[in-house]
Here is the input.
Amino acid sequence: MKKKILAKLLVLCMVVGMVPTMAVAATGTAGSITVNSATNGSVYVVKSDSSLVKIDGTYSTDGDTTIRLVPDSGYEVVWGDETSKTGSYYTYTVNDDTNVVYITENDTTILGGQVATVHPVFTKTSSSGGSSGGSSSSADKVTVGEPATSGGTTTVEVKVETKTSGTTTSATVSRKDMDKAVDSAVEAAAKAGTTPAIVVKVETGDKTTAVKVDLPAKSLKTLSEAEGATLSITSDVADVVLDSESTAALAEQAAGSTVTVSVKPATGLNNAQKEAAEGATVIDVSVTSGGKQITDFGGGVLSISVKYALPEGVSSGEVQVFYLTDGGALEAHETSYSGGKVTFTTTHLSKYVIGTKSMLGVSFEDVLFGQYYYDAVAWAAKNKITAGITATMFAPDKTCTRAEIVSFLWRAAGSPEPKSASNPFTDVDSGAYYYKAVMWAVEEGITAGTSETTFSPDKTCTRAEAMAFLHRSEGSPAASGVGSFTDVPADAYYTNAVAWAVKSEITAGTSETTFSPDKTCTRAEIVTFLYRDMAK
Here is the structure.
């Protein structure tokens, strides 16, 4: 009898040969392998203690062979990325040309005359039993609850009891447990005409400040295939709730066998970020898989809640969460505070500051949260780029003059002293608020005026001028192509500036085909252009 056996430490190997036999199953101490619909063949199991258990099976020379692996009570099957599971069976597919294991939702197929090798592993579960309707088979004690329907959602809770090391609680849900939860939720939701939801509830210690949860990627993929399915990770310290779009995006982007969701105090802040945070709490919310960060969720929304004690003298209405950019800019997110937790929504993951609304430095009555220029005005006011037209008014819709944009650029550069006292412009008075800004801009090659002797400070700034000023202030970096804009000539003075601005995501034009170079700019638009260029 010809045998081909791949021995591997702590691994079971199954080999199909060419010996005529008529048995269909055999059981070892850890589990059983079943070979169905066969006429010829032999299967060998090499256990980790090197003992050999022969399981005779059959297969047709012109048909398919099905092999199913079923763990005994008290055991589980540990697989690599090749795992698939249907019902209570673990299944796999063998490529008959290269003997490589492939994933399939169907049973294993081995063509006649081929030698196929796969590598499942039997391990003892850390515990068994648990409460009624639950299971516990991973290193952590995991209990899978029964489906519960409320409104239009059917929820299955996966409770994880784990140990805390220092201030970090790490939890792992096995493939077996997660599959059970997902299958249960999806099946019950289908019967009830509702959408399925999985809630992973992690028990944390009193000293926990960071939570990390590992979930099997393939289970999440199965969940995401159900219409409207959602995923939540909850604990006393932090909650991460993904809507159906973000759940699907997460499953689609998973690059490894495991997805890790983490909420922890942020570390490694750069100087700009430290300065912007002003000593407030900074958290790092991340999702990783296969060594890859998943930060964008395809437009889906995540709701994040973090345990937070209100500082003395701060009311719940003053609490504000900000996205903290690498450049130290703060972008406000819709925030609420209740039950000792601060909650905010986002469409991407990064570092977030939990602070107060006063950190924005916005006291303008005409700049309201939710307006597209809100964060830009907050950044400009905080960095003393603008103080508004009065202490309480920014005038976002007022047209911006050439004097104003040059002054904004000058202040953003730190308000440097001009190197020369020579003034070529007859319309720029030495006592004007914009005098030093104009002199500096001329020296830096940002503007040469509207003629040799005029700067035209009160002339309204156009979109073309704004892009040209910004581009020159950055050293006129090379750029080419203006995409589909039909109103930007190839030889215009602002062509390269527009190309650079589009590439740098400072502007996307006024439509898919127009940039509108001669359109005048408002103060809100100009400050937003600066913010997109300098703050991110």
In short: The first strand starts at residue 14 and ends at 16. Residues 392 and 443 are 34 Å apart (CA to CA). The chain has ten helices and 31 strands. The chain has three domains: 14-124, 141-359, 381-534.
